[in-house]
């Protein structure tokens, strides 16, 4: 096996092990509070930079798929009026592995001033984004998959799993039904399966 293929194969184990260990950091009280806030929120915002931002876009779509109105708020646009989407009682979800992403800190201040609840997903529980949050969900990343341990790979997968866990919990909490999803998802193979059985 070539060195390149060895690296490719090792990536599966690195990510699987990190996600398995992240389950050991599952905080029941924190997840329940996050689910309660998300279930009650009229609107949900999500923001992050780089890979975290891309996964926040995925999270917003996951929320819309279970009819929780949500949108990704670009850090660049947030400080130019986009935070007008958020009103008192809404929820803002921040994703930042280090919890210090400079572009997100002004958005945190806006949320606090507007009475918007904050959920932060981060590894650093003592970071500004964690300390300013109503709920902190701990991300755990043992190492990234590249040999330099600097690409946003395992950390992206870990964030994805946390968001998937929240959606799974919200389906239970809100009693969301398959028939509701069938109505809003007529397209593709999933739509065919949901609407033609």
In short:
The protein has 197 residues and is α/β, with parallel strands linked by helices. The chain has helices spanning 3-22, 28-40, 50-65, 75-78, 105-114, 128-131, 154-174, 178-184, 188-195, and strands spanning 44-47, 70-72, 91-95, 117-122, 135-138.
List the helices and strands and how they pair.
Elements: H1 3-22, H2 28-40, E1 44-47, H3 50-65, E2 70-72, H4 75-78, E3 91-95, H5 105-114, E4 117-122, H6 128-131, E5 135-138, H7 154-174, H8 178-184, H9 188-195
Parallel strand pairs: 1-2, 1-3, 3-4, 4-5
Helix pairs in contact: 1-7, 2-7, 3-7
Architecture overview:
With 197 residues, the chain is α/β, with parallel strands linked by helices. Helices cover 52% and strands 11% of the residues. Strands 2-1-3-4-5 form a five-stranded parallel sheet, sandwiched between helices. The mean pLDDT is 95.
- Beta strand %: 5-15%
Shape type: globular
How many β strands by DSSP? 5
Task: Compute the CA-based radius of gyration.
Answer: 18 Å
So how many helices?
Answer: 9
Distance between the termini: 45 Å
Helix content: 40-55%
**What's the order of the H and E elements?**
HHEHEHEHEHEHHH
Spatial ordering of strands, largest sheet: 2-1-3-4-5
Largest sheet: 5 strands, parallel
User: Regions with pLDDT < 50 over 5+ consecutive residues?
Assistant: none
Oligomeric nature of the chains: single chain
Task: Quickly list its features.
197 residues; 11% strand; alpha/beta; 9 helices
């Amino acid at each position: 096996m070539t060195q390149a293929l060895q690296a490719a194969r090792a990536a599966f184990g690195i990510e699987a092990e990190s996600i398995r260990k992240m389950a050991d950091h599952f905080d029941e009280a924190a997840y329940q509070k996050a689910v309660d806030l998300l279930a009650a929120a009229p609107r949900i915002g999500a923001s992050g930079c780089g890979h975290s931002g891309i996964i926040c876009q995925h999270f917003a779509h996951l929320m819309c798929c279970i009819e929780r109105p949500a949108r990704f708020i670009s850090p660049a646009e947030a400080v130019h009026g986009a935070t007008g989407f958020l009103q008192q009682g809404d929820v803002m979800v921040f994703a930042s592995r280090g919890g210090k992403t400079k572009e997100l800190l002004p958005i945190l201040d806006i949320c606090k001033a507007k009475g918007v609840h904050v959920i932060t997903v981060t590894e650093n529980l003592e970071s500004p984004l964690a300390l300013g949050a109503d709920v902190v969900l701990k991300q755990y990343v043992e190492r990234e998959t590249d040999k330099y341990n600097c690409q946003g790979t395992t950390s992206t997968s870990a964030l994805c799993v946390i968001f998937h866990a929240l959606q799974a919990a919200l389906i239970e909490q809100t009693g969301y039904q398959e028939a509701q999803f069938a109505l809003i998802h007529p397209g593709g193979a999933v739509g065919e399966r949901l609407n033609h059985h």
